[in-house]
Amino acid sequence: MALRKEEITRKLLHLFALLMPLGIFYLPHEKFQITISHWIPVGILGGLLFGSVVVESLRFRVPAVQKYFIKFFGHMLRQEESTKTTGSTYVIGAALICSILFINNKHISFMVLSLFILGDAVAAIVGLSIGRIKIGKKSLEGSAACFLLCMTLFYAVFPYMPFVLDPWGGSVPLLIAAVSSLSITVFELIPLKITPKVTINDNLAVPVITGGIMLLLERVMF
């Protein structure tokens, strides 16, 4: 496997997606002097998703739109995304679903989306650059990098983010960290098939599934 410049650019630009979990958690946070409704981030994400879906639909139906889309974004698209919905649209969809499902647990939305966005980027970069042991279309090395990065975020980043760990008493339970990191890694690695012909995009499913697992563990432990 070879790491292309386009893939690096794609993953670096995906880092802008971190604005979504940051907005979900911090915009409506009650400890700030000026707060906004919990539903404002939901509305913003809904608007972003609507716009993204409209553009995706138009580019498949209007050749001129597809022409300009490829002109501006074609260097970042994977081969299959020239005829299918891009991963970024699915990530926005995942952020919207998480912001609604975990509206009273915004720390979970923040963590699972951050874990997935960064873990997916590292898995791809490591897998394409040094991956040797193939698992389907991905690699063991990439998956190991994803897991290690997720654990690093739990213990070296999240504890220093204001208010994120308040619901957990300021510390990260090892069980939640390990299981959530493993969930991100495994479900990002294995295709989520409903039927032999229908597969749920991992960009949409993995954050939502991991968020549900994290919430369940939180309720059991706290």
Descriptors for this entry?
mainly alpha; two-stranded antiparallel sheet; 9 helices; 4 strands
Blueprint (SSEs and pairs):
Elements lengths: L4 H10 L4 H8 L12 H23 L1 H11 L13 H15 L4 H25 L3 E2 L2 E2 H18 L16 H16 L2 E4 L2 E3 L1 H20 L1
Antiparallel strand pairs: 1-2, 3-4
Helix pairs in contact: 1-6, 2-6, 3-4, 3-5, 5-6, 5-9, 6-7, 6-8, 6-9, 7-8, 8-9
Task: Describe, in short, the structure shown.
The protein is mostly helical and 222 residues long. It has 9 helices and 4 strands; from the N terminus they run H-H-H-H-H-H-E-E-H-H-E-E-H. Strand 3 and strand 4 form a beta hairpin.
* Series of H and E elements: HHHHHHEEHHEEH
Spans of 5+ residues with little confidence (pLDDT < 50)?
none
Number of domains: 1
Q: Taking Cα atoms only, what radius of gyration do you get, to the nearest Å?
A: 18 Å
Whole-number average pLDDT?
89
Task: Characterize the overall form.
Answer: globular
Content of β-strand: under 5%
Report strand order across the widest sheet.
1-2
Helix content: 55-70%
Q: Structural class of the secondary elements?
A: mainly alpha
User: Gap between N and C termini, in Å?
Assistant: 44 Å
Q: Please provide the count of β strands.
A: 4
The number of helices is: 9
Describe the main β-sheet briefly. Answer: 2 strands, antiparallel
Describe the structure.
By secondary structure, the chain is mainly α. It has one domain. Helices cover 66% and strands 5% of the residues. The protein contains 9 helices and 4 strands, in the order ααααααββααββα. A hairpin with a 2-residue loop joins strand 1 (134-135) and strand 2. Helix 6 crosses helix 9 (202-221). The chain is globular, with a radius of gyration of 18 Å. The termini are far apart. The mean pLDDT is 89.
